[in-house]
Amino acid sequence: MTNVTLKPWDAVDHLHTDEDMALYLDACFAEDPGDGSLIRAALGDIARARGMTQLARDTGMAREGLYRALSSEGNPEFTTIMKVVRALGLRLHAQSANENREPGASVQ
Q: How far apart (Å, rounded) are the C-alpha atoms in residues 57 and 25?
């Protein structure tokens, strides 16, 4: 029998390009349960993929504070999120939830 070594799955291993990171964050916005935990964790993953030390320099924040704020249990202020998003070279935008609905479809 062949021994198989497994390692925990980490999104960081798959975030190689700016497009990968943007698509990942968009997917996390769509799937977040409403408490922001998935979005914070995704920003943390993207930050680790880019380099947390450099992000700390770019935002003027402590690296340890960024790890805490961007964990799924973190509770960062919106200003922190905006600093991180800008430092990562990402942009947030809004889209109407009704934009992709069929004409006459009900809104829930």
A: 22
Contact 43, 25 (CB under 8 A): yes
Q: Which domain holds residue 46?
A: 16-87
d(CA 47, CA 55): 7
pLDDT digits (tens, 9 = 90+) for 29-61: 999 999 988 999 999 999 999 999 999 999 999
Residues 83 and 105: their CA atoms lie apart, in Å, by 38
Residue 1 falls inside a structural domain: no
The reported pTM is 0.80
Q: Read off the DSSP letter of residue 105.
A: P
Count: domains in the chain = 1
Q: What does the block give as tokens for 39?
A: 């979005």
| Residue 55 tokens, joined | 């992000």
